[in-house]
Amino acid sequence: MATLRNEELPSWICCQLGAREHYAIPRALHQTGQLAHLITDAWVPPQSALNQLPTPLFTNLRERFHVDLAQTSVHAFTGSLMRFELTQRLQKTSGWERIIDRNHWFQKRAVQVLNAIAPQHSSLNSPPTLFAYSYATLELFRYAKTRGWRTILGQIDPGPTEEKLVLEEYARHSIYESSWQPAPPHYWVRWQEECSLADRILVNSQWSSQALQQAGVPANKIDIIPLAYEPPEQARDFVRTYPSAFSAERPLRVLFLGQVILRKGIVALLEAAEHLRDQHIEFWLVGSPGIARPQQDKVHEQVRWIGSVPRSATAQYYQQADIFLLPTLSDGFGLTQLEAQAWKLPTIASRFCGAVVKDGVSGLILQNVTGAAIAEALLFCLNNPQQLVNFSRQSTSMEHFGLATLQNNLQALPYATI
What we know:
The protein is α/β, with parallel strands linked by helices and 418 residues long. It is built from 14 helices and 13 strands. Keywords: Transferase. It holds the Pfam family Glyco_trans_1_4.
Protein backbone atom coordinates (compact mmCIF):
# COMPACT_ATOMS: atom_id res chain seq x y z
CA MET A 1 0.00 0.00 0.00
CA ALA A 2 1.36 3.39 -0.98
CA THR A 3 2.03 5.79 1.86
CA LEU A 4 -0.10 8.93 1.76
CA ARG A 5 1.49 12.35 1.55
CA ASN A 6 1.43 14.41 4.75
CA GLU A 7 -1.11 16.88 3.40
CA GLU A 8 -3.49 14.00 2.61
CA LEU A 9 -3.33 12.50 6.10
CA PRO A 10 -5.97 13.47 8.67
CA SER A 11 -5.06 15.55 11.68
CA TRP A 12 -4.80 13.72 15.01
CA ILE A 13 -6.07 14.51 18.49
CA CYS A 14 -4.09 12.58 21.09
CA CYS A 15 -5.54 11.89 24.54
CA GLN A 16 -2.94 10.66 26.99
CA LEU A 17 -3.31 9.92 30.69
CA GLY A 18 0.27 9.89 31.95
CA ALA A 19 3.56 10.41 30.13
CA ARG A 20 3.73 7.04 28.40
CA GLU A 21 6.70 6.70 26.03
CA HIS A 22 7.69 10.29 26.86
CA TYR A 23 4.83 11.44 24.61
CA ALA A 24 6.39 9.64 21.64
CA ILE A 25 3.23 9.36 19.52
CA PRO A 26 2.17 13.03 19.79
CA ARG A 27 5.80 14.06 19.26
CA ALA A 28 6.04 11.96 16.11
CA LEU A 29 2.78 13.39 14.81
CA HIS A 30 3.85 16.95 15.63
CA GLN A 31 7.02 16.55 13.58
CA THR A 32 4.95 15.58 10.53
CA GLY A 33 2.51 18.44 11.09
CA GLN A 34 -0.42 16.14 11.93
CA LEU A 35 -0.91 16.80 15.65
CA ALA A 36 -3.87 19.10 16.18
CA HIS A 37 -4.17 18.78 19.95
CA LEU A 38 -2.69 16.88 22.89
CA ILE A 39 -5.08 16.33 25.79
CA THR A 40 -3.33 15.09 28.90
CA ASP A 41 -3.85 15.01 32.65
CA ALA A 42 -0.85 17.17 33.62
CA TRP A 43 1.52 19.53 31.84
CA VAL A 44 4.26 21.29 33.80
CA PRO A 45 6.56 23.53 31.71
CA PRO A 46 9.99 24.33 33.21
CA GLN A 47 8.89 27.84 34.21
CA SER A 48 5.86 26.54 36.12
CA ALA A 49 5.68 27.33 39.83
CA LEU A 50 5.10 23.62 40.47
CA ASN A 51 8.75 23.00 39.67
CA GLN A 52 9.69 25.14 42.66
CA LEU A 53 7.63 23.21 45.23
CA PRO A 54 9.85 21.67 47.94
CA THR A 55 7.39 18.90 48.80
CA PRO A 56 7.97 15.48 47.21
CA LEU A 57 4.22 14.93 46.97
CA PHE A 58 4.06 15.99 43.32
CA THR A 59 7.69 15.46 42.34
CA ASN A 60 6.69 13.17 39.47
CA LEU A 61 4.77 16.05 37.87
CA ARG A 62 8.08 17.74 37.09
CA GLU A 63 8.57 15.19 34.32
CA ARG A 64 5.20 15.96 32.76
CA PHE A 65 6.44 18.04 29.87
CA HIS A 66 8.44 17.61 26.69
CA VAL A 67 10.25 20.39 24.89
CA ASP A 68 9.30 18.90 21.50
CA LEU A 69 5.69 19.80 22.26
CA ALA A 70 6.31 23.23 23.78
CA GLN A 71 4.69 25.05 20.85
CA THR A 72 1.72 22.71 20.34
CA SER A 73 -1.90 22.94 21.46
CA VAL A 74 -1.84 21.17 24.83
CA HIS A 75 -4.90 20.88 27.07
CA ALA A 76 -4.12 19.69 30.62
CA PHE A 77 -5.87 19.48 33.98
CA THR A 78 -2.90 19.79 36.30
CA GLY A 79 -4.66 21.55 39.15
CA SER A 80 -7.62 19.21 38.96
CA LEU A 81 -5.28 16.22 38.99
CA MET A 82 -3.57 17.45 42.15
CA ARG A 83 -6.93 17.86 43.86
CA PHE A 84 -8.03 14.43 42.67
CA GLU A 85 -4.90 12.73 44.01
CA LEU A 86 -5.14 14.51 47.36
CA THR A 87 -8.78 13.49 47.71
CA GLN A 88 -7.94 9.90 46.88
CA ARG A 89 -5.26 9.85 49.56
CA LEU A 90 -7.56 11.38 52.14
CA GLN A 91 -10.21 8.80 51.29
CA LYS A 92 -7.51 6.10 51.46
CA THR A 93 -8.47 4.55 48.14
CA SER A 94 -5.97 2.25 46.50
CA GLY A 95 -5.51 -0.46 43.90
CA TRP A 96 -8.14 -0.90 41.24
CA GLU A 97 -10.53 1.53 42.91
CA ARG A 98 -8.08 4.40 42.50
CA ILE A 99 -7.03 3.36 38.99
CA ILE A 100 -10.62 3.19 37.77
CA ASP A 101 -11.57 6.45 39.47
CA ARG A 102 -8.59 8.17 37.83
CA ASN A 103 -9.53 6.79 34.41
CA HIS A 104 -13.09 8.09 34.81
CA TRP A 105 -11.88 11.48 36.06
CA PHE A 106 -9.63 11.91 33.01
CA GLN A 107 -12.27 10.86 30.48
CA LYS A 108 -14.85 13.25 31.91
CA ARG A 109 -12.53 16.22 31.52
CA ALA A 110 -11.15 15.13 28.16
CA VAL A 111 -14.63 14.85 26.68
CA GLN A 112 -15.30 18.45 27.76
CA VAL A 113 -12.23 19.54 25.81
CA LEU A 114 -13.21 17.46 22.78
CA ASN A 115 -16.61 19.12 22.75
CA ALA A 116 -14.98 22.56 22.92
CA ILE A 117 -12.56 21.94 20.03
CA ALA A 118 -14.94 19.92 17.84
CA PRO A 119 -16.15 22.98 15.85
CA GLN A 120 -12.56 23.52 14.63
CA HIS A 121 -12.74 20.19 12.78
CA SER A 122 -16.31 20.24 11.50
CA SER A 123 -15.45 22.05 8.26
CA LEU A 124 -12.42 19.92 7.33
CA ASN A 125 -12.59 17.62 4.32
CA SER A 126 -11.19 14.71 6.31
CA PRO A 127 -12.37 13.96 9.86
CA PRO A 128 -9.68 13.94 12.55
CA THR A 129 -8.25 10.81 14.06
CA LEU A 130 -8.71 10.45 17.82
CA PHE A 131 -5.94 8.45 19.48
CA ALA A 132 -6.09 7.34 23.11
CA TYR A 133 -4.57 4.63 25.28
CA SER A 134 -6.51 1.65 26.57
CA TYR A 135 -8.61 1.65 29.74
CA ALA A 136 -9.09 5.45 29.76
CA THR A 137 -10.75 5.69 26.37
CA LEU A 138 -14.35 4.49 26.29
CA GLU A 139 -16.11 7.83 26.85
CA LEU A 140 -13.73 9.49 24.38
CA PHE A 141 -14.51 7.00 21.64
CA ARG A 142 -18.24 7.20 22.32
CA TYR A 143 -18.01 10.94 21.77
CA ALA A 144 -15.80 10.60 18.68
CA LYS A 145 -18.29 8.26 17.03
CA THR A 146 -21.06 10.84 17.41
CA ARG A 147 -18.83 13.20 15.39
CA GLY A 148 -17.83 10.69 12.73
CA TRP A 149 -14.16 10.79 13.72
CA ARG A 150 -11.69 7.97 13.19
CA THR A 151 -10.61 6.20 16.38
CA ILE A 152 -7.30 4.49 17.15
CA LEU A 153 -6.70 2.64 20.41
CA GLY A 154 -3.16 2.37 21.82
CA GLN A 155 -3.25 -0.96 23.67
CA ILE A 156 -0.72 -0.73 26.50
CA ASP A 157 -0.58 -4.43 27.44
CA PRO A 158 -1.77 -7.90 26.33
CA GLY A 159 -5.12 -7.42 28.05
CA PRO A 160 -7.17 -10.17 29.75
CA THR A 161 -4.95 -12.92 28.32
CA GLU A 162 -2.08 -11.57 30.42
CA GLU A 163 -4.25 -11.44 33.53
CA LYS A 164 -5.19 -15.10 33.03
CA LEU A 165 -1.50 -16.06 32.82
CA VAL A 166 -0.74 -14.17 36.03
CA LEU A 167 -3.66 -15.79 37.85
CA GLU A 168 -2.35 -19.21 36.83
CA GLU A 169 1.16 -18.30 38.00
CA TYR A 170 -0.11 -17.28 41.43
CA ALA A 171 -2.11 -20.49 41.68
CA ARG A 172 1.07 -22.50 41.00
CA HIS A 173 3.19 -20.49 43.43
CA SER A 174 0.92 -19.49 46.30
CA ILE A 175 3.86 -19.20 48.71
CA TYR A 176 4.73 -15.86 47.11
CA GLU A 177 2.59 -13.39 49.03
CA SER A 178 1.54 -10.32 47.09
CA SER A 179 -1.03 -7.53 47.08
CA TRP A 180 -1.77 -8.14 43.38
CA GLN A 181 -5.45 -8.53 42.51
CA PRO A 182 -7.16 -9.17 39.16
CA ALA A 183 -9.23 -6.37 37.66
CA PRO A 184 -12.97 -6.32 38.44
CA PRO A 185 -15.14 -7.83 35.67
CA HIS A 186 -16.62 -4.47 34.59
CA TYR A 187 -13.09 -3.25 33.79
CA TRP A 188 -12.86 -5.81 31.00
CA VAL A 189 -16.44 -5.18 29.83
CA ARG A 190 -15.55 -1.52 29.23
CA TRP A 191 -12.33 -2.54 27.51
CA GLN A 192 -14.21 -4.81 25.13
CA GLU A 193 -16.36 -1.84 24.13
CA GLU A 194 -13.23 0.28 23.64
CA CYS A 195 -11.94 -2.36 21.22
CA SER A 196 -15.30 -2.50 19.45
CA LEU A 197 -15.37 1.28 18.95
CA ALA A 198 -11.75 1.44 17.76
CA ASP A 199 -11.20 1.55 14.02
CA ARG A 200 -7.60 0.42 14.52
CA ILE A 201 -5.81 -1.00 17.56
CA LEU A 202 -2.07 -0.40 17.95
CA VAL A 203 -0.04 -2.96 19.89
CA ASN A 204 3.70 -3.00 20.47
CA SER A 205 4.51 -6.65 19.83
CA GLN A 206 3.48 -9.83 18.06
CA TRP A 207 2.80 -11.33 21.47
CA SER A 208 0.27 -8.59 22.32
CA SER A 209 -1.41 -9.13 18.95
CA GLN A 210 -1.78 -12.84 19.65
CA ALA A 211 -3.07 -12.17 23.16
CA LEU A 212 -5.72 -9.73 21.94
CA GLN A 213 -6.87 -12.18 19.30
CA GLN A 214 -7.23 -14.82 22.01
CA ALA A 215 -9.54 -12.34 23.79
CA GLY A 216 -11.70 -12.02 20.68
CA VAL A 217 -10.26 -8.92 18.99
CA PRO A 218 -10.32 -9.29 15.18
CA ALA A 219 -6.84 -9.65 13.72
CA ASN A 220 -7.64 -7.27 10.87
CA LYS A 221 -8.06 -4.37 13.32
CA ILE A 222 -4.61 -4.80 14.88
CA ASP A 223 -1.39 -3.07 13.81
CA ILE A 224 1.99 -3.81 15.42
CA ILE A 225 4.12 -0.73 16.08
CA PRO A 226 7.08 -1.13 18.51
CA LEU A 227 7.78 1.38 21.24
CA ALA A 228 9.96 4.34 20.41
CA TYR A 229 13.18 4.79 22.37
CA GLU A 230 15.94 7.38 22.44
CA PRO A 231 19.13 6.11 24.08
CA PRO A 232 21.16 8.37 26.39
CA GLU A 233 24.08 10.11 24.74
CA GLN A 234 26.62 8.51 27.08
CA ALA A 235 25.55 5.03 25.93
CA ARG A 236 26.53 5.65 22.32
CA ASP A 237 30.30 5.41 22.89
CA PHE A 238 30.22 2.99 25.81
CA VAL A 239 32.75 0.15 25.48
CA ARG A 240 31.95 -3.11 27.26
CA THR A 241 34.68 -5.55 28.31
CA TYR A 242 34.64 -9.13 29.58
CA PRO A 243 37.22 -11.29 31.36
CA SER A 244 38.72 -14.25 29.52
CA ALA A 245 37.04 -16.47 32.11
CA PHE A 246 34.67 -15.92 35.01
CA SER A 247 35.73 -16.85 38.53
CA ALA A 248 34.73 -16.56 42.17
CA GLU A 249 36.50 -13.19 42.27
CA ARG A 250 34.89 -12.06 39.00
CA PRO A 251 31.55 -13.86 38.60
CA LEU A 252 29.12 -13.50 35.71
CA ARG A 253 26.86 -10.61 36.73
CA VAL A 254 23.23 -11.14 35.69
CA LEU A 255 20.95 -8.11 35.87
CA PHE A 256 17.19 -8.22 36.30
CA LEU A 257 15.71 -4.71 36.28
CA GLY A 258 12.01 -4.07 36.72
CA GLN A 259 9.18 -4.92 39.04
CA VAL A 260 10.03 -8.00 41.09
CA ILE A 261 6.71 -9.73 40.50
CA LEU A 262 5.53 -13.11 39.27
CA ARG A 263 4.49 -11.78 35.85
CA LYS A 264 8.10 -10.87 35.14
CA GLY A 265 9.18 -14.50 35.54
CA ILE A 266 10.78 -14.04 38.93
CA VAL A 267 9.97 -17.61 40.06
CA ALA A 268 11.82 -19.10 37.08
CA LEU A 269 14.74 -16.74 37.76
CA LEU A 270 15.02 -17.90 41.37
CA GLU A 271 14.76 -21.53 40.27
CA ALA A 272 17.62 -20.91 37.82
CA ALA A 273 19.68 -19.39 40.63
CA GLU A 274 19.12 -22.55 42.64
CA HIS A 275 20.25 -24.70 39.67
CA LEU A 276 23.40 -22.56 39.41
CA ARG A 277 24.19 -22.34 43.11
CA ASP A 278 27.70 -23.77 42.67
CA GLN A 279 28.59 -21.68 39.59
CA HIS A 280 30.45 -18.38 39.35
CA ILE A 281 27.26 -16.38 38.78
CA GLU A 282 25.52 -13.69 40.78
CA PHE A 283 22.07 -12.21 40.23
CA TRP A 284 21.19 -8.52 40.73
CA LEU A 285 17.47 -7.91 41.26
CA VAL A 286 16.89 -4.18 40.80
CA GLY A 287 13.34 -2.92 41.18
CA SER A 288 10.46 -2.49 43.57
CA PRO A 289 9.50 -5.78 45.23
CA GLY A 290 5.95 -6.88 44.55
CA ILE A 291 6.25 -10.21 46.34
CA ALA A 292 7.56 -11.29 49.71
CA ARG A 293 11.11 -12.57 49.52
CA PRO A 294 11.01 -16.37 49.90
CA GLN A 295 12.46 -17.66 53.17
CA GLN A 296 14.82 -20.14 51.52
CA ASP A 297 16.28 -17.40 49.32
CA LYS A 298 17.42 -15.27 52.24
CA VAL A 299 20.53 -17.41 52.60
CA HIS A 300 21.25 -17.55 48.85
CA GLU A 301 24.41 -15.45 48.62
CA GLN A 302 24.38 -15.35 44.81
CA VAL A 303 21.09 -13.43 44.70
CA ARG A 304 21.27 -9.75 45.61
CA TRP A 305 17.89 -8.12 46.27
CA ILE A 306 18.87 -4.52 45.59
CA GLY A 307 15.36 -3.08 45.59
CA SER A 308 14.04 0.08 44.01
CA VAL A 309 16.52 2.67 42.74
CA PRO A 310 16.04 6.14 41.20
CA ARG A 311 15.61 6.19 37.44
CA SER A 312 18.87 8.12 37.18
CA ALA A 313 20.74 5.25 38.87
CA THR A 314 19.74 2.48 36.48
CA ALA A 315 22.51 3.31 33.98
CA GLN A 316 25.22 2.18 36.39
CA TYR A 317 23.64 -1.28 36.62
CA TYR A 318 23.41 -1.60 32.84
CA GLN A 319 27.08 -0.61 32.64
CA GLN A 320 28.35 -2.95 35.35
CA ALA A 321 26.33 -6.06 34.46
CA ASP A 322 27.49 -8.76 32.04
CA ILE A 323 24.09 -9.85 30.80
CA PHE A 324 20.51 -8.65 31.10
CA LEU A 325 17.75 -11.11 31.92
CA LEU A 326 14.07 -10.53 31.08
CA PRO A 327 12.21 -13.83 31.62
CA THR A 328 8.78 -12.19 31.49
CA LEU A 329 5.65 -14.30 31.20
CA SER A 330 3.90 -11.42 29.45
CA ASP A 331 4.77 -7.85 28.50
CA GLY A 332 3.33 -5.55 25.90
CA PHE A 333 6.90 -4.81 24.90
CA GLY A 334 9.54 -4.67 27.64
CA LEU A 335 11.34 -1.34 27.21
CA THR A 336 14.21 -2.49 29.43
CA GLN A 337 15.39 -4.64 26.51
CA LEU A 338 16.05 -1.49 24.51
CA GLU A 339 17.74 0.17 27.46
CA ALA A 340 20.03 -2.84 27.89
CA GLN A 341 20.84 -3.12 24.19
CA ALA A 342 21.58 0.61 24.02
CA TRP A 343 24.30 -0.05 26.61
CA LYS A 344 25.51 -2.95 24.42
CA LEU A 345 24.44 -5.38 27.13
CA PRO A 346 23.71 -8.91 25.82
CA THR A 347 20.18 -9.92 26.68
CA ILE A 348 18.35 -13.13 27.49
CA ALA A 349 14.63 -12.51 26.98
CA SER A 350 11.46 -14.52 26.70
CA ARG A 351 9.40 -14.54 23.51
CA PHE A 352 6.44 -13.01 25.33
CA CYS A 353 7.38 -9.37 24.75
CA GLY A 354 8.58 -7.10 21.97
CA ALA A 355 10.98 -8.37 19.32
CA VAL A 356 14.26 -6.65 20.20
CA VAL A 357 16.86 -9.36 20.79
CA LYS A 358 18.13 -11.29 17.78
CA ASP A 359 18.54 -14.87 18.91
CA GLY A 360 22.18 -15.95 18.69
CA VAL A 361 23.22 -12.49 17.47
CA SER A 362 22.66 -9.93 20.24
CA GLY A 363 21.54 -12.38 22.90
CA LEU A 364 19.35 -15.42 23.44
CA ILE A 365 15.59 -15.99 23.29
CA LEU A 366 13.95 -18.29 25.83
CA GLN A 367 11.38 -20.50 24.11
CA ASN A 368 9.99 -21.43 27.52
CA VAL A 369 10.23 -19.50 30.78
CA THR A 370 11.51 -22.15 33.18
CA GLY A 371 14.33 -22.31 35.67
CA ALA A 372 16.02 -25.04 33.63
CA ALA A 373 15.85 -23.01 30.39
CA ILE A 374 17.30 -19.91 32.06
CA ALA A 375 20.04 -21.95 33.74
CA GLU A 376 21.00 -23.53 30.41
CA ALA A 377 21.26 -20.13 28.71
CA LEU A 378 23.33 -18.67 31.55
CA LEU A 379 25.67 -21.66 31.63
CA PHE A 380 26.33 -21.13 27.93
CA CYS A 381 27.23 -17.50 28.61
CA LEU A 382 29.33 -18.41 31.64
CA ASN A 383 31.40 -20.88 29.63
CA ASN A 384 31.66 -18.71 26.52
CA PRO A 385 32.69 -15.17 27.50
CA GLN A 386 33.90 -14.54 23.94
CA GLN A 387 30.34 -15.09 22.75
CA LEU A 388 29.22 -12.36 25.13
CA VAL A 389 31.73 -10.08 23.46
CA ASN A 390 30.19 -10.94 20.09
CA PHE A 391 26.67 -10.39 21.41
CA SER A 392 27.70 -7.01 22.74
CA ARG A 393 29.27 -5.92 19.46
CA GLN A 394 26.14 -6.89 17.55
CA SER A 395 23.61 -5.18 19.80
CA THR A 396 20.34 -4.21 18.17
CA SER A 397 20.44 -0.90 16.36
CA MET A 398 18.41 1.75 18.13
CA GLU A 399 17.54 3.33 14.77
CA HIS A 400 14.87 0.67 14.34
CA PHE A 401 13.10 2.10 17.39
CA GLY A 402 13.64 5.83 16.84
CA LEU A 403 11.07 8.57 16.43
CA ALA A 404 11.57 8.60 12.65
CA THR A 405 10.62 4.92 12.47
CA LEU A 406 7.55 5.61 14.59
CA GLN A 407 6.56 8.41 12.21
CA ASN A 408 6.85 6.06 9.24
CA ASN A 409 4.85 3.36 11.00
CA LEU A 410 2.03 5.76 11.85
CA GLN A 411 1.88 7.08 8.30
CA ALA A 412 1.80 3.53 6.93
CA LEU A 413 -1.38 2.66 8.84
CA PRO A 414 -4.11 1.39 6.48
CA TYR A 415 -6.26 4.52 6.45
CA ALA A 416 -8.22 3.20 3.51
CA THR A 417 -9.89 0.69 5.79
CA ILE A 418 -11.05 3.13 8.48
